[in-house]
Amino acid sequence: MNKKAMYNLTYGLFVLTTKLGERCQGCIINTAMQVTTTPNRITITVNKQNLTHNVLMHTKEFNISVLSEEADFAVFKHFGFQSGRDTDKLAGYPYAENAPNGMPYITKGTNAYISGKVIDTVDLGTHTMFVADVTDGEVLSDVPSASYAYYQSNIKPKPEKKEGEKKGYRCKVCGYVYEGDELPEDFICPICKHGADDFEKI
Fold it and tell me: Is residue 9 classed as helix, strand or coil in its secondary structure?
């Protein structure tokens, strides 16, 4: 099987935010879609290793901010390449406002936000799929949404080849390098939490 066939599926990119007490959490996800219009429902899928996942399991409410083609790499680094266990990603973040549900959405590099209330969950092994009723939403700009392919081609910096660079495998999402002759099939990137399928030999 050619696993690269999966890359031809269309993906958007989103900042998922939720809040427990006074502490907000946020992470990058690439799986959010509308599943019904009546009632208006969406699904999102979140890696269980993300602290945002654990908070959402408790709060059952969230916002997703739809990233647009104006998003720069900084937003991906801020919400995707650091853990909420180590830093409060929303504390002092200048490009966030609260939606009516009291949770933040991202205002820069986004074209809409959608608020949801979880009504069901499905355990998918490494991830949980959340089924949610849409409770609110707003269009923020008319800039097209950033697809995963657009991110790879236009937003993510291209890795620089260095003299004497070690051999191994590079994560195509964040650039992390695994040093070794063989990448384990079950390897998970310690930075962005993507699996072995998202690594390329270098």
Answer: coil
Task: State the number of CA atoms in the 13 A half-sphere of 15 facing the CB.
Answer: 33
Report which of 101, 11, 23 is spatially closest to residue 62, judged by C-alpha positions: 101
Q: pLDDT tier at 44 (50, 70, 90 boundaries)?
A: very high
Q: What is the C-alpha separation between 135 and 105, in angstroms, rounded?
A: 14
Report yes or no: 78 and 174 within 8 Å, Cβ to Cβ. Answer: no
Say which amino acid occupies 160.
E
Query: Residue 44 corresponds to which tokens in the numbers above?
Result: 């999102």
Count Cβ neighbours within 10 Å for each residue of 128-163 and write b for 16 or more, e otherwise. bebbbebbebeebeeeebbbeebbeeebeeeeeeee
The reply to whether the predicted model has a pTM over 0.90 is: no
Measured distance CA(99)–CA(103) in Å, rounded? 6
Give tens-digit pLDDT for 51-61.
999 999 999 99
**CB burial class (10 A; 0-12, 13-18, 19+) of residue 113?**
buried
Pair 140, 112: CB distance under 8 Å: yes
Mean pLDDT calculated for residue range 65-94: 93
Is it the case that residue 66 has pLDDT exceeding 70? yes
Pairing of strands 168-171, 110-123: unpaired
